[in-house]
Amino acid sequence: RKEVEQDPGPFNVPEGATVAFNCTYSNSASQSFFWYRQDCRKEPKLLMSVYSSGNEDGRFTAQLNRASQYISLLIRDSKLSDSATYLCVVTRGGDKIIFGKGTRLHILP
Amino acid sequence: DTAVSQTPKYLVTQMGNDKSIKCEQNLGHDTMYWYKQDSKKFLKIMFSYNNKELIINETVPNRFSPKSPDKAHLNLHINSLELGDSAVYFCASSQGGSGINEQFFGPGTRLTVL
Question: Could you tell me the sign of the dihedral formed by the alpha carbons of B43, B46, B48, B52, in that order?
């Protein structure tokens, strides 16, 4: 079992819809959690850090469930420009950084 | 005014050659990284340096040797290139310890080994 797992998708979602995807992690000692976004043939860019209390940034909400060892990303009122690959990142111990394989999202007009 | 820059952007070379990729960041960050993203888009960390000191060294063939002349630069030298080395290599930097804070990625170097 991989340490960080994501549903690769693709998720094909009509514009304006709400979409959510999860990322599970296997090591309970994991400390920091992030969602990155990667557009086609571009570099990854931070979308949001994920905190235990959950956090929201505009249409995006990220949550952490330590008991069940997953993080989630919710996108409301999706836009065409949200089409990208969303990468889950988990770190621990100061020397382990693990990226998930990413979830591809296509927003359909 | 690029924050993290890499050169070259594209690199096409023959098997067995030795090549280098350069990375520079002007963000004043302490930590720099090299990642490999293969054809299946899986992004995997290779190395991390904090203030010129090697912090992370994942299971990478010793044909790959990072060099950090100062904390703003982290170059990657690859000896005896193999077909399986073909990938996109991303440099990144962050403030503070490895993985704690936001990482800023360079635009990537697309390496093709023929």
Answer: negative
CA atoms within 13 A on the CB side of A4: 26
Whole-number mean pLDDT of chain A?
A: 93
C-alpha B8, offset from chain centre: 12
pLDDT at A6 over 80: yes
Question: B100 vs A45: CB contact, 8 Å cut-off?
Answer: no
Closest partner CB to B45 (pick from A34, A45, A97): A97
Nearest of B87, B11, B106 to residue A43 by alpha carbon? B106
Predicted local distance difference test score (pLDDT) of residue B99: 66
Measured in angstroms, the CA of B106 and the nearest CA of chain A are apart by 7
Instruction: Please state, for a pLDDT cut of 70, what percent of chain A lies above it.
Output: 100
